[in-house]
Amino acid sequence: MDEIKSHKVSFFERFKRSIVDIRSYNFFVKESLGKGILYLFLLSLMVAFITSSVMSYKFKNSFEDEARGIMIQMPDFEFKNGEMNVEGDMPLRIDDYIIVDTTGNTDASVLDSYNEGILILKDKAVVKKNVVEKREFDFSSINDVEFNKQDVAKYIPKINNWISIFIVLFGMIFGTLWIMLSTMINALILGIAGIIISKVQKMDIEFGYIYKICIYAFTLSIVVDKLIIGYMPIYIPYFNIVYYIVAGIYMYNAMDSYRREIQQ
């Protein structure tokens, strides 16, 4: 592939060349570390956006189906003046973990036989998260709120949209930071191996140059790990080792390419 002649190289051009063109590393290594970090940030942001968008899409569909199923099973109800009133025979069980009884004939002890569950009474809700943690939410704190089954059904799509947007935003922030920081640490570890190789094979390449090479060398590993392996329905043993091996192969070939250039 042709050599890079301009210092104004787009992110996507860097992304492509870091995977398919080892000679381009000769250009990357001469740039400042800041440009390498910027590339890693944009790569992390792109991957985090894709993964969080897929996660949001899956949640959106499952939440809609789950909420629709619960609403179909739920009888007519109304919340008014801090009290929940439900029509029909009670106690009412929904999806085996939600119990509703607004008659006053059921108390929180009904959850003792459950590892987790939700009990909705006339004046409060009891949420059991595990065998030891149980929390109560008193409806009197929201006695100025009024809604019924029709209101809830109407707002489910809106709630779903907001949660989906939150998943994308949170996933982008957390995912970007996680991928970026972990890759910087991985590049440091791989760079130490690189400096040893440089000394043994008398390549005479500084650690700072090797570290910049390692940042780009992890590109394919990140893409395969986050965007391919992460969505495959099978488990691939020892992939963490393969993750480093692939990056190590890129690093070695890039170091060798740079060594041959500086010796010319």
Automatic annotation (TrEMBL):
Origin superkingdom: Bacteria
Residues passing through the membrane, by range: 37-57, 164-197, 209-229, 235-255
Pfam families in the cross-refs: DUF1189
Family matches, as InterPro entries: DUF1189
Keyword Membrane set for record: yes
Keywords: Membrane, Transmembrane, Transmembrane helix
Protein name: DUF1189 domain-containing protein
Organism: Tepidibacter hydrothermalis
